[in-house]
Amino acid sequence: MCNYFFTVNKLGKKIDDYYVNKALQLYLEGLTYREIERILGISHVSIMNWVKKYNIKRPYNSEYHPTYKILNALELSSYFQSPENIKGAGVIVTELGDKFMLIKWERFKE
């Protein structure tokens, strides 16, 4: 798993809404506050505050935890060319600056 840090655009002391939305999306996908902090470069405390402020609730499932990768466009294209990478799994791709985050989880995990 790659860790990249992204520059967060701040408007004064306010973080750009784009990053607030990304952080909340990643939270709903099952990533922890600290994982989101490492990916977006935003304090985990800020993320916790947004989850509370917007009353975001995710379903509780202790066995569900997706894996994620940070890829550039060429790596993403190559990833999808291999059928074994996506067979039997759910995949979501979201933009992160000039990179892409691929979130994957096993659909039929026992």
TrEMBL record:
InterPro entries: Homeodomain-like_sf, InsJ-like_HTH. Residues 22-56 form the Insertion element IS150 protein InsJ-like helix-turn-helix domain. Pfam families: HTH_28 (PF13518). This is Helix-turn-helix domain-containing protein. It comes from Aquimarina addita.
